[in-house]
Amino acid sequence: MRSERMQHSAVETISKAQVSIKGTSDGLVIHLGAGEWNALLVALAEKLDRTPSFFRGGRVALNVGPRQLTASELETIGTLLSKFQVSLWAVLSDSVETQQAAAEMGLETSLALSRMEHLLGEKLDGRERVIADGEPAILVRRIVRSGQSVCHTGHVIIIGDVNPGAEIVAGGDIVVWGRLRGNVHAGSNGNERAVVCALVLAPMLLRIAGYVARSPGREDSEAYEQSVVPEIAFVYNGQIVAEPWRAMDGLYTDWRADLLRRAANTLSTWF
Fold first, then answer.
1. Does residue 151 register a pLDDT over 70?
2. pTM
3. Are residues 125 and 53 in the same domain?
């Protein structure tokens, strides 16, 4: 009797797990809603097992909403998908911790860039397509608010603030003539020489190529607001570092001067 109750409880738990697989313009997206993590995995496996030939050889994005997942948990679901010959290429989440774990695994955290690639050569929703430092770029003259994304395979220049909850993705450099407090990903195509510059550099999550850094929260302090200076973030010795963004005055080594010169050349296009 006890065994039957336990089996019934397990079945009920799995039945409450909210798992759906939807086709979108960006491909298949698996949505994991409410439910225990293990029950969600079982429910997902059951869905995939119903029509394995349909999913075989495909790739999917995973949408977990606000759920906070570790890299180990993401690896578990990646292993599950691989058993059905399905590859995981992106993880969508409102959780910064989940985004960071996905980024550290080399997974995308936004579908926006793939959508933007289809728009190249077409009108960019009122944004100006320009050339910066000899390479393609877009210039956005507005505040980028929470929930909004700006993505481009070249450089991205924002004249205005980037609010928390907003996202900027660029294949090249990102320059913000304002306060940067959202999520940014420069060098999204793997370019480790990409840089991120801002008058106030305080992003929630900062990525350059496959490297990830989080804001230390210093922007909330009064002392920081009073002493803030423009900064430039770049990859050095296998990690993202940030330094004051100042005119070349002989204090920098050649490679640092080159990074700053590229950022300065980008801005000189506009001013």
1. yes
2. 0.50
3. no
Say whether 54 sits in a helix, a strand or coil.
helix
- Across 100-113, b (16+ Cβ under 10 Å) vs e yields bbbbeeebbbbbbb
Q: What are the residues facing 29 on neighbouring strands?
A: 22, 61
Residue pair 31/23 in contact by the 8 Å Cβ criterion:
no
Does one domain contain both 94 and 119? no
Total domain count for the chain? 2
pLDDT tens by residue, 102-136: 877 778 877 654 444 443 333 344 455 544 455 67
- In order of 30, 146, 174, 181, the CA distances from 143 in angstroms are 32, 10, 15, 11
Indicate the residue among 76, 109, 142 that finishes a domain: 109
Q: Is residue 95 located within the same domain as residue 131? A: no
Question: What domain range is 13 assigned to?
Answer: 2-109
Total H helices, total E strands in the chain? 8, 16
Contact at 8 Å (CB) between 95 and 68?
A: yes
- pLDDT tens track for 45-64: 998 888 888 778 888 889 99
